[in-house]
Design a protein that fits this description.
By secondary structure, the protein is α+β, with helices and mostly antiparallel strands. It has a single domain, classed as Jelly Rolls, CATH 2.60.120. It has one helix and nine strands; from the N terminus they run αβββββββββ. Strands 5-4-7-2-9 form a five-stranded antiparallel sheet, with no helix packed on it. Strand 4 and strand 5 form a beta hairpin.
Length: 120
């Protein structure tokens, strides 16, 4: 009985891992991170080339997204997608007094993705 339970557990675990793998894009970079209170997260590429991203805010606090020509106030569980041009970066500002969790998917990039957190 114990062996049957172990085999079933392994099969269920293996099937969950395979189904999760199928949902992710192999050519994208996934970043799940926390932006501390009164801080900003800057995303750019090492070669300063263009890239695209999708972001979902997982915390209740509002995050302000800024690129060279766009400024957006992002709210929880809404999905935002933007393209960033050459020699530009994107900055996520957390102006609240609580840490904020964000999920980023970065794609169409040609070099290493750089991320920097700074105090405001």
């Amino acid at each position: 009985m114990k062996q049957l339970l172990i085999v079933l557990t392994l099969l269920i675990t293996q099937s969950c891992q395979i189904s999760n793998l199928g949902k992710k894009d192999n050519h994208a970079l996934y970043i799940n991170t926390i932006i501390p209170a009164y801080s900003s997260l800057k995303i750019s590429t090492e070669d300063a080339k263009s890239f695209s991203f999708e972001v979902i805010i997982k915390s209740d606090s509002t995050i302000h997204l800024r690129t060279h020509d766009t400024e957006i106030s992002m709210e929880k569980d809404n999905k935002y997608a933007l393209n960033v041009d050459d020699s530009e970066s994107v900055i996520f500002k957390n102006l609240s007094n609580r840490n904020s969790v964000i999920n980023l998917k970065i794609f169409n990039h040609s070099a290493k993705v750089m991320q920097t957190i700074d105090k405001l």
